[in-house]
Amino acid sequence: MIKNRLFKPFIFVFILLSFIAINSCDNSKKKENSKSEIQVQQSKPKTAESNEPIPEYMGAGKSVYTQNCLVCHQSTGTGVPGLNPPLKKTPYVLEDKQRLIGIILNGSNDGLVVNGSTYSNAMPAFAMLSDQDVANVTSYIRNSFGNKAEPITENEVKEYRATLE
Amino acid sequence: MIKNLYSSKGFIYLACLALISLTSCKNNEKSEDGEMNSNSKLALSDNNADLTLPDGFGVVKVADSVGAARHLAVTADGSIYVNLNQRKDGNGILYIQDTDGDGVADSTKGFADYGGTGIYLSDQYLYASSDQEIFRYKLDENQKLSNATTPDTLVTGLINRRQHASKSITLDDAGNIYVNIGAYSNSCQQQDRTPGSQGMQPCPILDSAGGIWRFNADKLKQSYGDGTRYATGLRNVVGLDWNKQNNKLFVMQHGRDQLHTLFPDLYDEKASATLPAETMYMLNEGDDAGWPYIYYDQQKNKKILAPEYGGDGEKTGAENAIDPVVAFPGHIAPNALLFYTGDMFPEKYKNGAFIAFHGSWNRAPEEQEGFMVAFVPFKNGEPSGDYEVFADGFAGMEKVESPGDAAHRPTGLAQGPDGSLYVSDDAGGSIYRIVYNN
Fold first, then answer.
1. CB atoms A122 and B163 under 8 Å
2. Residues of A in contact with B365 (CB under 8 A)
3. Among B10-19, B288-297, B378-387, where is mean pLDDT lowest?
């Protein structure tokens, strides 16, 4: 008897609860959707920008990157946790041009700390690359993986290399 | 009466009832599963914590986000010591306890002012390593620390030049402690990892690294002069364990990187992603596994002369070097080795080897692979069959472009007192406990 009396309202409450739960899930999805819609709209002007001719250093720099850098720093520019530092959004890539050219020509074995993480592998020197190749690859990594920074010219590499000799 | 039930008080009452009955349903299911194995209270994950396992195995997610969890050890009462690669909140080692028996961590305490990888537990002592020292902590009858702040320093001054710096440890039954000292180099080139640079002959690194050293497990402040170079020619070992069936040390070597980037004329990207093998060696005192002069080609089943030493991908070399007992695919980074001696798992696992693979990076631009735990069956201390993937799905995605994307990366293995297999993860900071149900 007691069972019967409780049973019906129990189902009712259960259905009600489930409904609320499902609904609230739906709402959160809707919110996400509307967010991404906004993002799509915002990114429209950028799409227009990308119709501008792609600078030559992007193609030439990518092939230097693929042969010499990709395996350690990865196709995503995110590096390898604990071993090889990321290139994506790091001061070493985006800021001081001289420091970046220096790391490529001289290598680096300091246990680099980037954004609070230490990276243990040594970076070899790539002094055998031509000034043009160094300019292309540095410009490429400064403008890939979400990075945006002024490209580096062949002359800037040449001037830096002269200080080493 | 029915009307009353729809009132707000009644509503809350019923909602509570609904929740309680739902929860108790779940508990009932669990205890039915568990009773067969006396895991009655274990909070088994509904979906094996997103891992794929052979039939009959289940997973308890013991802990999450504990930090860069490297090797771990489990006490007789099921508590966990885990070494963190980098200190978290000032602590390099965590002591994790489950107080209510559901297998999930309830209490975490920390100690040690250094980060590291190695950890080993005996009845009396906890042994742990930083990247240049080995410490020992006295334990009480419950395997708890009696003094967390002033451990004994067993070994000091081991080489740490960042690359391959972790010092994994294990003990034999004769009072010796074994430690890997990884080579601070990829292939002992004159300029490390520099295209075309030739190998140093002989490789000077091998006098103090690139091997396994043996020390007295009961003597303080030892360094190179007090120890023995037990085995050499091992580029970097992270996983090692003492096999009690044949009384031998087994180690997992990380094979060399970058054949294509360093020697593009000899190896294409595909060959470089595949070669060389990650290798398991059974060691005797004085053994040489051949690094840096050779690498092991798992397709040819041969020791191939390294290109830095005149190799062309075909020539063999270092004929005196030992052969591996198991060869795995390249670059997948074996970070832990454990011989399973428990009674919980089915018979085929008894005395076999579990290997935790951290997952590759050096396969780029090919997809990354090997974020998994493998198993190799053993008989009388020798492999008795091929390796198989035991636990997979740690990365949390089908295709891994770069290892930084992987959600979890297996790093350490330990066996619990009931025969559960524990797996640590230094990316997501998870600790998994794998149990067998039926």
1. yes
2. 66, 70-71, 75
3. B10-19
What is the 3-state secondary structure of chain A? CHHHHHHHHHHHHHHHHHHHHHHHHHHHHHHHHHHHHHHHHHHHHHHHHCCCCCCHHHHHHHHHHHHHCHHHHCCCCCCECCCECCCCCCHHHHCCHHHHHHHHHHCECCCCEECCEECCCCECCCCCCCHHHHHHHHHHHHCCCCCCCCCCCHHHHHHHHHHHC
Q: Look at the block and give the residue holding tokens 């509570």.
A: B16
Q: A62, A70, A71: best mutation site toward chain B, by most B Cβ within 10 Å? A: A71
> What percent of chain B lies above the pLDDT cut of 70?
91
Searching chain B, which residue's CA lies closest to the CA of residue A8? B2
Q: What is the pLDDT of residues B292-305, one digit of tens each?
A: 999 999 999 999 99
Q: Do B361 and A10 touch (CB under 8 A)?
A: no
Strands B69-74 and B382-383: unpaired
Task: Find the closest chain B residue to A81 by CA distance.
Answer: B404
Q: Inform me whether the C-beta atom of residue B224 falls under 8 Å from chain A C-beta atoms.
A: no
Residue A77 makes CB contacts below 8 A (sequence gap 6+) with A86, A87, A88, A141, A144, A145, A147
**CB contacts, 8 Å: B209 with chain A:** none
- Which pTM value belongs to this model? 0.85
Tell which B residues from 133 to 192 touch A, by Cβ distance under 8 Å.
162-163, 165, 191-192
Per the document, the length of chain B is 438
- How near does any CA of chain A get to the CA of B23, in Å? 13
Q: How far apart are the C-alpha atoms of B415 and B433, rounded to whole Å?
A: 9
Lowest mean pLDDT among A113-122, B7-16, B166-175: B7-16
Q: What is the DSSP letter of B400?
A: B
- What secondary structure letter does DSSP report for B437? -
Cβ within 8 Å, pair B85-A82: yes
Average pLDDT, chain B: 92
Q: Which of A67, A71, A96, A66 is nearest to A83 (CA)?
A: A71
Bridge partners, B199 (sequence order): B189
Contact B362 A75 (CB under 8 A): no
Q: How far apart are CA B371 and CA B332, in angstroms?
A: 7
At residue A118, the pLDDT reads: 86
Contacts with B14 from chain A: Cβ below 8 Å: 6, 9-10, 13
Taking one residue from A and the other from B, the number of pairs with CB-CB distance under 8 angstroms is: 94
Residue B102 has pLDDT above 90, yes or no: yes
Question: Does residue B255 contact residue B238 with C-beta atoms inside 8 Å?
Answer: no
Terminal CA-CA length for chain B: 48
Determine the length of chain A: 165
Please list the ranges in chain A whose pLDDT falls under 50.
1-48
Residues of chain B contacting A121 with CB distance shorter than 8 Å: 162-163, 193
pLDDT value for A165? 74
Q: Which residues of A touch B192 (CB under 8 A)?
A: 122, 124
> Once rounded to an integer, what is the mean pLDDT over residues B69-85?
98
- Chain B residue numbers with beta carbons less than 8 Å from the beta carbon of A112 are none
For A79-99, b/e burial (b = at least 16 CB within 10 A) is bbbbbbbbbbebeebbeebee
pLDDT band at B31 (very low <50, low <70, confident <90, very high): very low
Q: Do B86 and A79 touch (CB under 8 A)?
A: no
